[in-house]
Structures
1.
Amino acid sequence: MPNPLKPDRSVITTCAYCGVGCGFKAEMRAGKIVRMTPWKEGKANHGHSCIKGRFAYDYYNAPDRVRTPLIRASIDDPWTPVSWQEAFDYAASAFRRIQAKYGVKSLGAVSSSRCTNEEIFLVQKFARAVLGNNNIDNCARICHSPTQFGLTNTIGAGAASQHFDSILQADVIMVVGANPTEGHPVFGSLMKRRIRQGAKLIVIDPRKTETVESAHCKADVHLAIRPGTNVAILDSIAHVVVREKLYNEEFVRARCEVKEFENWKALVGSDKYTPEAIGPLAGVDPADIRKAARMYAGGPNSAIYYGLGVTEHSQGSTGVMCLGNLGLSCGMLGREGVGVNPLRGQGNVQGGSCLGSWPHVFSGYRFVTDYETRSSFEAEWGVPLDSEPGLRLPNMLDAAVAGSFKGMYIMGEDPVQSDPNQHHVIAAMKNMECVVLHDLFLNETSKYAHVFFPGSSSLEKDGTFTNAERRVSRVRKVIEPLAGYQDWEITVKFMNAMGYAVSYDNPGQVLDEIARLSPAYRGMSFALIDRIGSAQWPCDETAPEGTEILHRVKFPRANGLGAFMLTEYVPTAERTNDKYPLLLTTGRILSQYNVGTQTRRTPNSMWHPEDVLEINEQDAIARGVKDGDFVRVSSRFGQIELRAKISERVNPGIVYTTFHHAKSKSNAVTSDLSDWATNCPEYKVTAVDIVRAVMPVAEIPRAAEMPRVEEMETTE
Amino acid sequence: MSSSQTHSQGPDIPIMALDRLVAMANQIGDFFAPYPPERRAEGIRNHLRTYWDPRMREELLELIDADGSGLAPHVIEGAKLLREESHVKPGYYGPPKA
């Protein structure tokens, strides 16, 4: 008998899960995927992979994939399956009617970091050129928008300064608010390799994560801070650097604005940031703060890697600036083995940031308010463009609640599940007259949508992704789109139905347009990537095959100098009190991915059938909670029920959960507070209380959650 | 920077609830608080100018014209610069310059 797993064809493509962006060889037999094998030539992964990219691909063929466009007049009606053209015409006429009645700015669009660069760019074009406003945002808003803001203001580029391999030259690795062994496993393995070779490890995280201690990995210093005290602790580390004169004066004088450095020294060097003052506030030993500061400043090569534990706070942007300041002050930028590097959650968060899915900047981070930039886009797109910043996603939702915002086009996002303060999001959704949802599945948001465009998975389309190290890699079509069109084609056809004439033969032409309009992508093309495998931006005449390390000679700011920002610690308004005495924080697990839309539909769920609440024994005993009990978690915003797990990973006063399962509804309890600069939600700090919940045994879901088959209501 | 042409839905529907705007503006003020007075005011102004939809800025300025209640004094000072043409910096809307 012939081997049923023996492939007859293979295609090189890029994994769409986390921001590592591993290269994969998708192997097919008789038109079906039989295996995903890590690509040895992939420059991000060098032949390695994790159990998501390797095994969790079956979701594309899940029984509840929607294969026909759907429409309905009201969210109380059942869906009606229609032809593609009917769906485009229906959505276009609803959008035009809304704009005629409520004004040009009453609509907006949101794109996703699960989509390709080309698709993200086109959704931006849809908002700006077709809707005629700048109400365009993307899901980086709710994860890494503070990275763009904080890094741009300090080191000039809102992106990782290094390539992944640079970590193999690092002597000290500082991980802040990230858990790479679970969240970015292939990079996590590279980090462990360097640790085995003797690199020191500093971890700043409220929880004793797998990165703090697991096989081949043990932190030399773990600062288990209280959630919400990032800026205080980083300022205190900076305090030690300043007071003990551990900074690199030569680097600062040559590469930075010296006056700003002096201002910064005065602020963080003041007595309020001594480890003895901040230690008790943040719940850590002052001696450990000093140890971390000396270790980082001592290098000789120290590299910072950080995640959403830094950004998703009311001071998220300030926290990122602290890291930029720290890198500048110790001269840890501009060569191998150093740097300040965001670990991106989704496959294309960096691309989402680069390609203008923001209400205030076009692709390449250039302001809509700037006449020259705007003119270049107007010339290419043939229409006048709005010169004012538009609404950000949380602003759109606020405006919808207030009644001034009436509809949106959502590509590959599920705001009802993934955005904070779920009750508020649902109120906003219900207030809109036309929500056009473009996705693989009828997700939580679909309950409030009027038009559904069935999209294509990353296995069904062509394009590019930009990973967390700025690496642009090809996404290649492995199988035909299940619903007939690739996502970029759907957006183009929607633009056409709205009366905007544009056409592309293939997404390579969209990348060519991106290259014409975005300086850092000027040299990018399908041809280049097909030839050399992948390329890191900036890629232009001076760097025709891309750039591994940024900031070698100067920083991409007007004067070429790094700038220190004043990072005063401002405690979040979300406080514990007698009623809500515990702080809830969140994270991820290796086998699942974000809100789980994809991984929950695969056998990976066997490893993580449900989200659990980790609680310290002391807090559990005080509430009569035993390991495995169901508990009710309540905050000022709502309540959820989870199974409790007694854990030494969290300190007293802190509880922790993952957010991979829709049924857990973690965002029913999260607050509506957000970052001061970007409105990135404060997911990482919610004051809660826990009580033991009595639940009949029969209702307790024990079995692994099977692929969810949504009930698709039709009128047939 | 006039936003009058954007008020196509009538004057009685606010762009969003005023308390959200006040909280956001005060948070911006908190960040710029450690800067010296002139840079603090310009930082707040530039941030509002660069990142806020003009209707949000207008709603904030209307509140300031009324009584500015709930807003920190230095936020009011910075926001008022939005109305002074002398603070327009073509091509530059970033953080406060040294």
Note: Residues 582-670+678-699 of chain A form a domain with the Barwin-like endoglucanases fold (CATH 2.40.40.20).
2.
Amino acid sequence: MEGKKPPGTVGNSAGLPFSWPGLLYDTRVRGAALQVLLLIVLLLIGYEIATNTAANLRKQNIASGFGFLGRTAGFDISQTVIDYKSTSSYARAFWVGFLNTLLVAALGVVLATVLGFLIGLARLSANWLVARLATVYVEVVRNVPLLLQLFVWYVAVLRALPRPQQGLALAGGATFDVRGLHLPRPLFEGGAWWVAAALLLGIALAVGIKIWAGGRQRATGEQFPVAWMSIGLVAGLPLLAFLLAGRPLAFDYPRLGRFNFEGGLTIEPEFMALLFGLAFYTASFIAEIVRSGITGVARGQKEAAAALGLRRSQILRLVVIPQALRLIIPPLTNQYLNLTKNSSLAVAIGYPDLVAVFAGTVLNQTGQAVEVILITMGVYLALSLMTALLMNWFNARMAIIER
Amino acid sequence: MVLRLALRQFPSPSWRSHAWHGRGEGRLLGSALAAFLLAVSVPASAALSQAGTLETVKARGVLNCGVNTGLAGFSAPDDKGEWTGIDADFCRAVAAAIFKDGGRVKFLPLNAKERFTALQSGEVDLLSRNTTWTMSRDTSLGMNFTGVMYYDGQAFMVRKSLGVASVKDLAGASICVQTGTTNEQNLADYFSANGIGYRPVVFERLIEVLAAYNSGRCDAFTTDSSQLVSERTRLPNPDDHVMLPELISKEPLGPVVRQGDAGWANIVRWVHFAMLNAEEYGVSSKNVDQMLSSPNPEIRRLLGLEGDFGKGLGLDNDWAVAVIRAAGNYGESFERNLGSGSRLGLARGRNALWKDGGLQYAPPIR
């Protein structure tokens, strides 16, 4: 082995006598040296940018540093998930904006996924009308810019609603008007936690039964009605607890005050417009991803499943979808990332998301563009990386495990 | 490894839906760009502050002036695309002082949120955009106010049909306001000081605020009173709306320059004073040529016939003549854009000259 390889391609580890010039020809040493050099250059550039910025800001007498986060914000925000007043700090305003972004992105992802799967399956439907309608939906919605769709939702749909005094009365004490959707707010009384505990117990039992039934089926081939049992446990146990605990639930109904509906729970039209815009737009892309994923499953798989005597619903659930998911998840991740980032279009319709509140109002009031933009970019980066990480983990679980 | 796992899904399709997009993120991009410019522009801005804004403007041959995106009376494009208004006039006056030609202005429309970054990053030389002079803006944003173009205060507008007589009656009302303004903060202050609850409805552009108010999204619309008068004329039935009597704040609106160039600040400040002094001495765009033969020493000093006052500014001695020719005196510009000669029909009020009982007062040219 020793000495057989040409000296240019082997390192010292190959047993050649050590020599300084020899290092020059060692590919590993050269590679490492280049990487270290690149790292140094990058660090220098980063250092230069940081010191330049600091010097620039000092010279122009622009305040810098992150001390502003502790100061009083002095403005109000229309929709807040956490307690916030105009006397709260800028840091608090940041969290309000961040949570608003998170709220609309999370709900948007769920809604877009459900809608996208339904429409994607509809496009593959044997029913001519359903398939065509789904095609029209996809082609129209994905080819119209999102900003325009947001304006359609906000200006054409939600702005056209009547004033609060003439609001549309909906079932169960809810009303819908130009100021938003006013719902009764549930008030939980003592004993409500029994219901919550029953719900958790139901879910735990359902999971347990699924595991047990799976084991039994593998051992004996006998099936167990897992779905019905799960529904019964998850819905029935809390209901039973609710009745036993003496119905510990009341509602705070919205009442029309002089100007607005007071009390209850108000869903602002800006939030609805953004949520619907994002969900319907992204759903059109997800529908295509789902369709391509399902068509990507080899035809032979379905035929084989049919030959085994599986029902259509079983073929879809047990054979097609698990294989299609492998194709669906990676591009689906991209859509989730898009949706999260697109939520920054909120600023166009006045929804107080991170960009509007923090990179907008706070930036304007403090004038600290560098710090505010850095934090904002950091947040979107972190959100995107976390989504990607989660989806990659899910993808790894769903990937075919070769046996 | 974790990072690689996370990064793997990043590539292209995420850009597709981002390529076109419009204003929303363009703004963020704008702010990000401005932040980036601030970060890397040491050589450029060093050159800028050494050469001085005046030299930079002269070399460029045109004044970059930041104005409102559209506010009748202050700065708005007319049907021919010409910028009109008292703030737009001021841009022309400054350009005239430098170039003897009021046309050498590039107007850059900015919304409330963008304006300061545009000035800080050097995108505009002068911000003449109904901006309220406050201490924090003057001292910690790297810019200086040079004077007060219009003494204003924040007011409220409501529908007559609501039967509201005072701001204090607005408990529980939805109130529309523009973000990035002192109005947004005054609103929060006033209502919390008076212990009244309200619901803010906030938009980035004034036109969106007006549209929201018009659609009934909010009960009241609040901004500076001059702006309210201006915006009211754009509503379908202006007479259905009333202004409430209270003014809840002081809003001294004035031009702004970058901090650190005292010579440039002098020019902007004295162009404003020249317009005020011209009104005081009765010099207008119509009679400025006759006035050149006036024996009055104050007028002769203003018009550069006596003394060497232009030199201190780095301009020719007849700088004020060009200012008055291009924009007229303060009173002329006021009447043409805001007063009796305009659709707004605002009274001079606090903005009258000091000798008429107002607050507009210029130091003497001496």
Note: The longest strand of chain B covers residues 251-258.
